[in-house]
Amino acid sequence: MPEIKNFSLSEFACHCGCTENHTKLELLEGLQIVRNNFNEKITIVSGYRCLGHNRSIGSEDTSSHIKGLAADILVYDTGYAFKILKSIFDTGIFTRIGFGEYKGKLHLHVDRDTDKVQDRLWGY
């Protein structure tokens, strides 16, 4: 089990103001492994979401965020996107990856939700 040294649990708390946080250790461990390989800062823009917040932003009730198994990472530019994706693929930790834009910024979704189809890459 890797030491979680580059992330704090507070980064993953719900953003609606309720401050709930049920982030699972396997998500944190996976992100730390990617971070160790990537060797650059990873900014979490969304982690755990309470059901109310998840619904308020238009996400489905089946979202891996409400299970504490997903995170959205801020993507700074194309070079950053390429390097972090390479790190994700090299480590093999995340097999569910999504790209999307939210409030004018590009995000990369990763999750470790084994209840969902694996080996999936999608846009949102």
Which helices and strands, and how do they pair?
Layout: H1 25-38, E1 44-46, H2 51-56, E2 70-74, H3 78-91, E3 96-102, E4 105-111, E5 120-123
Parallel strand pairs: 3-5
Antiparallel strand pairs: 1-2, 2-4, 3-4
Query: What's the shape?
Result: globular
Query: How many structural domains?
Result: 1
How would you write the strand order of the largest sheet? 1-2-4-3-5
Radius of gyration: 13 Å
| Multimer state | single chain
CATH class: Alpha Beta
- Helical percent range? 25-40%
Main sheet attributes: strand count, strand direction, barrel closure: 5 strands, mixed
Share in β-strands: 15-25%
Order of helices and strands: HEHEHEEE
| Alpha plus pi helix count | 3
Counting helices, strands and paired strands, the structural category is alpha+beta
Q: Uncertain segments of ≥5 residues (pLDDT<50)?
A: none
Query: How many strand units?
Result: 5
Give the termini distance in whole angstroms: 32 Å
What does this structure look like?
By secondary structure, the chain is an alpha+beta fold. It has a single domain (9-123), classed as Muramoyl-pentapeptide Carboxypeptidase, domain 2. The protein is 27% helix and 21% strand. The protein has helices at residues 25-38, 51-56, 78-91, and strands at 44-46, 70-74, 96-102, 105-111, 120-123. Helix 1 crosses helix 3. The longest helix is centred in the first third of the chain and has 14 residues, at 25-38.
